[in-house]
Amino acid sequence: MRPGVMDRFDGLADRFLADIEPLKAAGTLVVGLYCTYAPVELVRAAGAVPVGLCGKKQEPIAAAERTLPASLCPLIKSSYGYAVTDTCPYFSASDLLVGETTCDGKKKMYEFLGRIKPLHLMQLPAMVGPAQDAYWLGEVRRFKEFLEERSGRTITDAALAEEIAVQNEVRRLLHKVLATSRAAAVPLSGLDAMLVTEARSFTADPNAYAAVLRELLAELEAMAASGASFAPAEARRILLTGCPVGRGSDKLVRLVEQCGGVVVASENCSGVKGFDGLVDETGDPLEAIARRYLRIPCSVMTPNAGRLALLDELVQAMRPQGVIDLTWQFCHTYNVESPIVADHLRHQHGLPTLHLETNYADADTEQLRTRVEAFLEML
Ligand code: SF4
Ligand code: SF4
């Protein structure tokens, strides 16, 4: 049984372009974002509309490979392919792009993207510490100045505080939605949970998104109270970690749920990593934003203890029986980190991990199905 409110999330994403049309006509900037490190509060406080642009489909990859090496992760190639073929309406609608120096492939791809549209690159440090906090605050301040110059609007502390409160409310609601899958009955499938978080990047008005989240939460809580579940009681509970997934790059989530498992949580950027951690609402808003965003535990950080800590929390809260660690082909940081994650989960929690490396194409789907089926049977 699927929550009826789920249709509204599809509607939100579909409506985005219609919603921004009058805003664009009135001079509102649309800012395309590629990564979870981009502070949306700043974009909104500048009166601009942020939109997520990460490439999640196979189709534009061939066009990207005319310029980029084939040996890059599909997410990078798909992002660039959409841009160079101008086939993503969200990219077309964007006036400006924001990138961060995360993995090597992505930061070098931004040099090409910057030839297509104005791109602001935030120089992300590779670890968390007092010196990095001070440095990243400078980068956040530089981003603020860039937005002020482009929008012609001063970003005030009051505007920032307002946007922080709205985004924190969205983060709290997403955590509550996740918590409805803690019990044995799981009212929301992993695939639908992915659509819920993804819709956040395609909503012109975050308050409207929060309102639909509240409706979803009410329906999920009612379902949970009546024991309604997406999956039968014997379905194996899976925690997904690793590279981000989304509509178009969701084959592994589909496979797990087709094979009788249920993804009870996704630790990746398209899941909990994208909404975990509130921005402190006391003190200087810019410092609070810088502090929260630098603590996103992406594998580009070294060391990346934050990812293990987040996995610990999710294991305790969501009680998975197994973990699937997804690496997109040629994503070196997640690939190298995978044995660290598997060792940690085995030693700290006695949990088995299945590490899968794949791309956006369908060629290996049946091979993956066999491995997922075998893993679920083993649990
Ligand atoms: S996995 Fe890392 S680089 Fe990719 S979107 Fe998330 S934070 Fe950004
Ligand atoms: S999946 Fe890996 S290689 Fe691809 S953009 Fe993200 S961090 Fe970079």
UniProtKB/TrEMBL annotation:
InterPro entries: FldB/FldC_alpha/beta (IPR010327), YjiM-like (IPR047678). The lineage of its organism: Bacteria, Pseudomonadati, Thermodesulfobacteriota, Desulfovibrionia, Desulfovibrionales. It comes from the Bacteria. Belongs to the FldB/FldC dehydratase alpha/beta subunit family. It comes from Solidesulfovibrio magneticus str. Maddingley MBC34. Pfam families: HGD-D (PF06050). This is Benzoyl-CoA reductase/2-hydroxyglutaryl-CoA dehydratase subunit, BcrC/BadD/HgdB.
